[in-house]
Amino acid sequence: MPGPNPVAGAGPVPGADPTLIVIVGPTGTGKSDLSLDVAERSAEAGRPAEIVNADAMQLYRGMDIGTAKLSVADRRGIPHHMLDVLRVTDEATVARYQTEARAAITDIVSRGRVPILVGGSGLYVSAVVYDFQFPGTDAAVRARLEAELVEQGPGALYTRLKTVDPVAAARIGASNGRRLVRALEVVELTGRPHTAALPDEPVYWMPALTLGLRAQRAELTPRLDARVEGMWAHGLVEEVRGLIPNGIETGVTAGRAIGYAQALRQLAGTLSQTEAIVETQQITRRYARRQVSWFKRSPHTHWIDSDAPDRVDQALTRLADPDQPVEHWAPHPAS
Fold it and tell me: For residue 104, which phi and psi values (nearest 5 degrees)?
């Protein structure tokens, strides 16, 4: 198991144990369960572990059902960080997350424990794992772009971004107005593509080993559809109703979260329950495909089949021998 040896700017070093364990993959592949299993096995080996959340929507207090957030009872007594740290009216920013998550990880390491970073928000994971700086902001430019978003809609901004940074446009999609505004702001301020913030040859913030959970699309799609149906069956609409007094309708990030936006429209009467579920399923499937596109680019991720009965043992084997060859993403032809 890894020892506490943070080295800023270091990456996978032959013969060296990783300080940080990272578990990634598309939604619905069982990242939380694997992180708990690895943490328990680490504790059995004499190295207690703590988990740091890297799912942007799990940062929000009260957003539990729609984010598949583990309840305190389900965390098996393992300390978790970066959960429930924002109000639904707060805007989630990756720059703020980077600072706070790294502080949590540094604290965990300083106490001789193993940090496990877990999540499916690709940019949030990369912001912690890799050493890169976020471009600044300009209030006037941001305000102008946000006004254009309101007047013209996200489609117009998406079309413009495709011209100046097609890679960022493909990653963000045509409907995420907030991220489109930010990408165009960065291009305008720096004269460089938004994606230039992510280095082609990543430099690690501290030694890390990344485990990825993968699933064939034919298996993952019905699992995601069932998960969405389960969100409604377990009370997502009532959860959202309870968040309205807290301001979720005006939340820049929270109010647009997958499932939450559809539940709000159901409560407003503009979507039926069936329509809300179907729309959420469609968006979730698209989001999972974007996650795959993001994570499979990493040349250092050790991929494990999410349904492998020995996935925990596979993960531990890779952690015990970080120098073994990386098994790259090799999706089924249908994936």
Answer: -65, -45
Place of tokens 């600044």: 136
* CA separation for the pair 269, 55 (Å, rounded): 29
pTM of the model: 0.81
Show the 3-state SS of 93-117.
CHHHHHHHHHHHHHHHHHCCCEEEE
How far from the centroid of its chain's Cα atoms is residue 59's Cα?
A: 11
Q: Provide the 8-state DSSP code for 70.
A: P
User: Residue 68 corresponds to which tokens in the numbers above?
Assistant: 């598949």
Residue with tokens 């790259």: 328
pLDDT tens per residue, range 196-228: 555 556 688 999 999 999 999 899 999 999 999
Q: Which helix (H) or strand (E) holds 209?
A: strand 208-214
3 state SS for 277-327: HHHHHHHHHHHHHHHHHHHCCCCCEEEEECCCCCHHHHHHHHHHCCCCCCC
